[in-house]
Amino acid sequence: MNRRNRCRAKLRLYPDPILTTVCEPVGDDEDVSGIIRDMMHILTNSKTGVGLAAPQAGHTKRVIIANTNNDGYLVMINPKITTFSSDWVFGNEGCLSYPGRLARINRMQWIGVDWQSEGRLNMEGDFIYLGARIIQHEIDHLDGKCEVGE
Ligand SMILES: [Zn+2]
Hints:
By secondary structure, the chain is of the alpha+beta class. Helix content is 18%, strand content 29%. The chain has helices at residues 33-45, 129-142; strands at residues 51-53, 63-66, 74-84, 88-93, 103-108, 110-116, 122-128. The strands form two sheets. The protein has a five-stranded antiparallel β-sheet, sandwiched between helices. Strands 4-5 form a two-stranded antiparallel sheet. The termini are far apart. The model has no long low-confidence stretch (mean pLDDT 93). Bound molecules: zinc ion (ZN).
């Protein structure tokens, strides 16, 4: 790869103000392939990341990537939690943008989510335990929040 084409995506770290910015929905005809490429670059180069939200890659759009079951990266455009359990569960969470920090955070045990795939198909699915935790963490980022940093 030559120098000019090298990916310039850079992980945004606390206290970058983009981490507290509320992200905009992705429009129907909007091309987010560059955003997804930047996010995948950061995520696959991290040793520990199981998910990433667009603002962590410098983009204020509602896109997240979650590695919910350790065998693939799930790209979610405009993710929205539509149903959720009444049971909550505590667990430890870290965040690539807050290196060295770990927080014990209460999350809904399962959630139902609507989103659009990378190919802009309407999707829906249920997620439990770690998958549900990752998605709740990443959607928080889209709303300018990260409890790991609080
Ligand atoms: Zn995070």
